[in-house]
Amino acid sequence: MLDFSMTIGGRQVAGRDVFAVHNPASGAVVGHAPNATLADLDAAVAAARAAFPGWAALPDDQRAAACAALAGKLGEHAEEIARLITLEQGKPLGALGSRFEMGGAQAWAGHTASLSLPMAVIQDDSAGRIELHHKPIGVVGSITPWNWPVMIAIWHILPALRAGNCVVIKPSPYTPLSTLRTVAILNTLLPPGVLNVVTSDDRLANIGAAMATHEGIGKIVFTGSCATGTRVMQGAAPTMKRLTLELGGNDAGIVLPDCDPAAIAEGLFWGAFINNGQTCAAMKRLYVHDSLHDAVCDALVAYARTVPMGDGIVEGMALGPINNRMQFDKVARLVADAARDGTVLLGGAPDDGLFFPVTLVADLPADAPLIVEEQFGPALPIIRYHDVEEAVAAANDSDNGLGGSVWSRDADRARDIALRLDCGSVWVNRHGAIQPNAPFGGVKRSGFGREFGEQGLAEMTELQTVFC
Ligand code: NAD
């Protein structure tokens, strides 16, 4: 049994109560995580506040070196943590699964360690000198989802620490074990209190909600659903907390008529089905020109049939189960509805347990729930269009605006259309390919703020303008 403790002020804290974490591939209990009380959260915030002056006062190059060492530590423990991710999240070890996630975590940590925000002089003349300084905020509260548990934790933790803040992280109750273990490992290199973790299934208290309102936390970085993001924003208002909200998406891909269906099928497939579609910036609606609609459908079906799905801990799988029952039921509802109004090209009926087959549905009306709602699972609607203006309008007809993509042999034309999509990131001839030096975040109800690169690091700071 994999039972882990919280790390609070550098100590391992078992908690008064625990909750079970299940393997979505089998339903078996993987291990237990502590169920934090509000007193545990207070202790974690107090430890972070106590550690903050020392951590913030470290010379910048020493903090950079400490963060680089954290990246190295993640590399040393990558296989151990990858197995934990697979056991509690369900994604396969190989392919674009948990080893890939750990590679990403290490790459993001390493790149973030190398970033800096030097003081800028914006005026220096006979009238005076004006300097712009980035200063850490204090305690950053991180709240993470279950889809990429460790990579997203690293996206929150590393820039916060690099900028001189201390952190309290709360992972999803579906995937707490990999974060508990990661934080314990990173703590071997950090002063006590700089990085703390609390876990909860919300039975004793809603710890995420308590973090949003907590007087001792200066900023929340939240990745999760739009509904919870709204609650975080409401909770944060009275204390005027700084916020980065990375929320849901309903990304559209647009295939222009000059594409070769066979050449783009693999890219389209993984753009939509990476991590079983349980990815914020996965393609969730695919608009294909009438002239090649049927050929793209055929090519996607043919490629999808080659992708093995099964228990992720067995080498050779490329897709695993859906992570949890609530998400499974949502996908099942959307697909059952789509099957009534559209043509199911592949999949459709749930398999055993939480396994849901790759599902492709065509001929749906524009207002079908599978098109309008974020499915966050392995089901893709393919929508025929006749005129690119119609496709751009449909892509933009969404409350979300996380990502989008345009597919064409004419890169300039694709870029021109890409610029017209209302979303924070847009790709040409690929989808969802994020990287640590390129700012990422949403527009409209997909949230606000940016992660990654200098812009992401700056969001972990307050600006101070000094008139010398
Ligand atoms: P969720 O909103 O249900 O949960 C996210 C986190 O919030 C969990 O840790 C949860 O315990 C916590 N939480 C629950 N109630 C809370 C409250 N009242 N206040 C504060 N925190 C609370 O999301 P999820 O189901 O874990 O993740 C899936 C969603 O996340 C999808 O919508 C997906 O698109 C989105 N997501 C977005 C990004 C991005 O970068 N934009 C990345 C990954 C996932």
UniProtKB/TrEMBL annotation:
Listed Pfam families: Aldedh (PF00171)
Alphabetical list of InterPro entries matching this protein: Ald_DH/histidinol_DH (IPR016161), Ald_DH_C (IPR016163), Ald_DH_CS_CYS (IPR016160), Ald_DH_CS_GLU (IPR029510), Ald_DH_N (IPR016162), Aldehyde_DH_dom (IPR015590), LUC3-like (IPR044086)
Aldehyde dehydrogenase domain sequence ranges: 18-466
Top-level lineage group: Bacteria
Keyword Oxidoreductase on entry: yes
Stated family: Belongs to the aldehyde dehydrogenase family.
Catalytic residue list: 246
GO molecular function: oxidoreductase activity, acting on the aldehyde or oxo group of donors, NAD or NADP as acceptor
Keywords for this protein: Oxidoreductase, Plasmid
Protein name: Aldehyde dehydrogenase family protein
Organism of origin: Gemmobacter fulvus
Keyword DNA-binding included in the entry's annotation: no
Gene3D superfamilies per UniProt: Aldehyde Dehydrogenase, Chain A, domain 1 (3.40.605.10), Aldehyde Dehydrogenase, Chain A, domain 2 (3.40.309.10)
